[in-house]
């Protein structure tokens, strides 16, 4: 949103809605982390003289923090609001934390070790060599604390911890990128299926006799509302029917809104299925709306499964279900077929839940024995 368009009330309100719809909480978390790290860098610089190498590392960390703030601020670039901004800003914040940690002495890094150990344990698999090395250092720390002795890691141990934390943060970022990619694929697929369903309804309205959703019924009870009365119906469609002596061709009985009606019924049934599936949905603290994307995917799937299912029945693909006697039966089967999209989307739901479980979020803050900095390092 540019400086000039932000003065327009409607446009300004729309921009605010977009910001609130985006990952506002995660953006504020990154801003808080950046401010905290900036304070730590400034405090460390004023507290004591540091070497030229550490000064360069701290200056590089400040540059990363400034870059993160530029990325997270939507007014600084023209790209639309998206969770990718949170991910990009997190890359710079992670780099800033790593650069800052490398400037600490063994005595200074000791209070942060519990938080760093938590990050490694959360995002690296147990068989990872870097996690194994860090767990060995954690055992040494606990042993020293049990004897009330100070623990100062060696230069090699400090480097091992920093490298393991870098790998853990990279793994956490990869988890978020996987979730972002998955939700984008689901959204594009939902959009494509929605366009396909609309196209099918429009084409069927223009060429109603091409592939009609009509059935030839056997003789039965009189159907109220048919012109001339009579027993039974010769052809039944979703929006109409004709008596045997009046039915010349199925295409003459088919209505232009047959496909549209069936698709609307299928979407309604799929919406009910998506609403009932909410009981299994667990909330997520990430910026990726995987449950919402999966629910939206069910709607066009319901419309298409209702249409395709009726076409299969009309082609005698399902034995015993090739003849329907009334429009009400066709609509009823459209409801069943629209709800049955759960048979196909359940596999996507499982994959979505697996991806969502993979994004485990930040580690629980842990206040180490030597100070309150462990929670800050975990960020």
How would you portray this structure in words?
The protein is mainly alpha-helical. The protein folds into 2 domains: 5-176 and 362-377, no CATH class; 183-358, no CATH class. The protein is 64% helix and 2% strand. It has 14 helices and 3 strands. A 3-stranded antiparallel β-sheet has the order 1-2-3, with no helix packed on it.
Helix content: 55-70%
Could you say which overall geometry the principal axes of the C-alpha atoms support?
Answer: elongated
Distance from first to last alpha carbon = 30 Å
| Count of alpha and pi helical runs | 14
Spatial arrangement of strands, main beta sheet: 1-2-3
Structure class:
mainly alpha
Average pLDDT, all residues: 75
Poorly predicted runs are 1-6, 15-22, 220-230, 361-379
SS strand fraction: under 5%
Report the strand count.
Answer: 3
The radius of gyration is 31 Å
Overall tally of domains: 2
Largest sheet: 3 strands, antiparallel
- Sequence of secondary-structure elements: HHHHHHHHEEEHHHHHH
């Amino acid at each position: 949103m540019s400086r000039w368009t932000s003065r327009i009330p409607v446009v300004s309100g729309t921009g605010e809605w977009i910001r609130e719809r985006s990952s506002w909480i995660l953006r504020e978390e990154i801003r808080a982390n950046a401010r905290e790290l900036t304070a730590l860098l400034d405090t460390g610089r004023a507290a004591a003289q540091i070497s030229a190498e550490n000064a360069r590392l701290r200056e590089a960390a400040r540059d990363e923090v400034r870059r993160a703030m530029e990325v997270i601020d939507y007014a600084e670039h023209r790209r639309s609001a998206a969770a990718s901004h949170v991910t990009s800003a997190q890359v710079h914040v992670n780099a800033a934390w790593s650069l800052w940690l490398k400037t600490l002495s063994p005595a200074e890094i000791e209070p942060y070790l519990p938080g760093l150990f938590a990050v490694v344990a959360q995002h690296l698999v147990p068989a990872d060599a870097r996690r194994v090395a860090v767990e060995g250092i954690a055992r040494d720390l606990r042993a020293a604390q049990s004897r009330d002795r100070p623990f100062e890691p060696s230069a090699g141990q400090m480097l091992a911890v920093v490298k393991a934390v870098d790998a853990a943060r990279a793994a956490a970022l990869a988890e978020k990128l996987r979730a972002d990619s998955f939700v984008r694929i689901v959204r594009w697929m939902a959009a494509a299926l929605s366009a396909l369903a609309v196209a099918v309804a429009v084409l069927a309205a223009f060429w109603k006799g091409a592939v009609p959703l009509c059935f030839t019924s056997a003789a039965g009870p009189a159907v109220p509302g048919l012109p001339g009365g009579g027993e039974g119906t010769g052809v039944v469609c979703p929006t109409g029917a004709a008596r045997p002596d009046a039915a010349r061709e199925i295409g003459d009985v088919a209505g232009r809104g047959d496909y549209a009606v069936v698709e609307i019924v299928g979407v309604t049934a799929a919406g009910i299925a998506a609403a009932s599936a909410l009981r299994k949905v667990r909330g997520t603290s990430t910026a990726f709306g995987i449950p919402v994307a999966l629910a939206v995917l069910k709607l066009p799937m319901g419309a298409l499964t209702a249409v395709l299912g009726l076409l299969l029945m009309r082609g005698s693909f399902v034995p015993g279900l090739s003849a329907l006697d009334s429009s009400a039966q066709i609509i009823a089967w459209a409801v069943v077929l629209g709800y049955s999209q759960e048979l196909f989307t359940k596999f996507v739901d499982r994959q979505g839940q697996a991806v969502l479980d993979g994004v485990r979020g930040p580690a629980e803050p842990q206040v180490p024995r030597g100070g309150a900095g462990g929670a800050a390092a975990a960020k």
